[in-house]
Amino acid sequence: MKNLKKKLGLALAVTLSTVTFATAYSTTAEPTTAATSENVNENTIRNDEPTSDRINQFKDIAMYYYWHGGDIQQAEKDIFKGITLKGKYDVVENAFKEATLLDPYDLDLKLSLASTQIIQKKTPEALQTYKQILNLDPNHFNANLLYGVYSKVNGDNSSYKSSISNLKQIDAKKTNEYLQKLETTETILDENLNTSAPADLPQKDHAIVILGYALAEDGSMREPLIERLKAGLAIAKQYPNSKIIVTGGVPKQGITEADAMSNWLISQGIEKDRIILENKSTDTVENGLFSTAILDKEGIKDVTLVTSASHMRRALTVFKEASDFYNKMNGNNIDRNFTNVVYLDYPSLEEAHKVSKDEILVIYRDLIRTSGIWQYPGLQR
Fold first, then answer.
1. In this structure, are residues 123 and 107 in contact, taking their beta carbons and an 8 Å threshold?
2. 201 in a domain, yes or no?
3. In this predicted structure, what is the pLDDT of residue 318?
4. For residue 163, is it within any domain?
């Protein structure tokens, strides 16, 4: 614990005094070799430490805030003096900005910075960061792809076409694979959303996948998750032979989303042996990847996804990409069929079918993540 606090400049020990840091976030970075005299102010990242250690400290701070947040005012005081922060992703962004100043040659740090800007929907800033990467390495495949896709989302089709042209010169086969993924996603954007189950779903080799939603701090389920479960329960009663996969692995008070969902379904009369827990995922991308592994193992070709209307197009994109990946990895040719049932979190179904620019941005972000390109290279998918 002592070494870990020193490694983070002790700033997080102050900022996150109510958290046992060693159990909340584990790091694989090397411990600091800087002087540790008791009379040295250790509430800041010190300039008398090796540059690599200081970079790792900023990366650790970024990843901690990405997951847990913290006291923003304390971060302003102890880590980012003179910078006004607005939220936890502001801390992540500024940590990577500081890291890129320490090593302006490290393109992975720049990719991480751009990803945080995308999370905050700061698309122009992210595009500028990707442009820096491409100025340094014009043949960087991932940067070209990300720059092109987000340019298109931002309404700049000329830059998108230029990026695709560059990508074809770098790796034509890989580029064509991504063009197919983008085309599939375009189709999903026009998908009809259903508020009840279709009447002609298969009576066997069919699964209902109910996507999780973050639990409250006391471990209870929030309204969106309960509504998703109600929608899933209706289908489960309509198709009693279908397996039910519940997803979500982030624990609160020792219980995961999948655990809570399973308990609720059982309390509503669903047999326990129908339910399969996917309790390792931390977000939609991992919901898709880890649930697809279960679908493959169970030999299930027909899937009904259940989630909120605002989340469904992203879920369908992720699950389709995950299914294609598993086909490729295992040498299979499973033409998995996806249907959907939504909890309507819009005023009307008509409103739900309108796709905003912000939603498109997040859909493409998660498509790219599911395809294997990490948001934070070497740190976080």
1. no
2. no
3. 98
4. yes
Report which of 281, 294, 226, 206 is spatially closest to residue 251, judged by C-alpha positions: 281
Domain of 165: which CATH number? 1.25.40.10
Would you say residue 276 lies in a domain? yes
Identify the DSSP state of 272: G
Q: What is the pLDDT of residues 141-187, one digit of tens each?
A: 999 999 999 999 999 999 999 999 999 999 999 999 999 999 999 99
Cβ-based burial of 59 (10 A; exposed 0-12, middle 13-18, buried ≥19): buried
Same domain? For 336 and 309 the reply is yes
Q: Report the mean per-residue pLDDT for the chain.
A: 89
Count the neighbouring beta carbons within 10 Å of the beta carbon of residue 139: 12
> Per-residue pLDDT tens for 194-246?
999 989 999 899 999 999 999 999 999 999 999 999 999 999 999 999 999 99
241 and 107 belong to one structural domain: no
Residue 155 amino acid letter = G
Question: What domain range includes position 98?
Answer: 2-187
Please enumerate in sequence order all residues whose Cβ is within 8 A of that of 88, keeping only pairs 6 or more positions apart, or say none.
65, 66, 68, 69, 70, 72
> Are 98 and 214 part of one and the same domain?
no
Q: Using CA atoms, how far apart are residues 233 and 257, in angstroms rounded to an integer? A: 16
Instruction: Answer with the residue of higher pLDDT: 82 or 16.
Output: 82
Let me know if residue 364 belongs to a domain.
Answer: no
